[in-house]
């Protein structure tokens, strides 16, 4: 027995979910002030001054992932499946390293607040070591992945002899 829904049912389900979200947002707005009384209170200048590079990074990564997904989809089902596996590994490692960076920032901020500069120095050094070490491990896997890809495609491998 198949559990797939026709396209019209999926569209109806999506519309119901959006409507439900809108209703919940309206109820929340009656109980909580979500927007400040003035646009000047949003402090966009402060946000862009402090977060412009992060915003640019997010836009660049989103653009690259969207473009790569589009290109992989044009190659067919098997390359798209391989791309999705690689994308999931990349997203997982990205989230792990973001967590490491955030934890390091919190520990360093606490150490600075306590004026324990030696602890801050040790934590910063250790986080940098972990970052460089993981990047070195990832770069060691790249030639192996290319070698596997060449075998999959039936080409001769690029060996030094």
Total strands: the figure is 0
Task: Give the class from helix and strand content and strand pairing.
Answer: mainly alpha
Query: How would you characterize the largest beta sheet?
Result: none
Q: What is the averaged pLDDT score?
A: 83
Structure description:
The chain has helices at residues 7-31, 44-75, 77-113, 117-153. Among the domains are: 45-75; 84-154. The protein starts with 6 loop residues before the first helix and ends in an 8-residue tail after the last helix. By secondary structure, the chain is mostly helical. α2 packs antiparallel against α3. The protein is flat and about 65 Å long. It is built from 4 helices and no strands.
Short description:
The protein is built from four helices and no strands.
Features of the shown structure:
161 residues, antiporter activity, MATE_fam, transmembrane
What secondary-structure arrangement, pairings included, does this model have?
Layout: H1 7-31, H2 44-75, H3 77-113, H4 117-153
Helix pairs in contact: 2-3, 3-4
Membrane topology: Multi-pass membrane protein
Subcellular location: Membrane
Main location: membrane
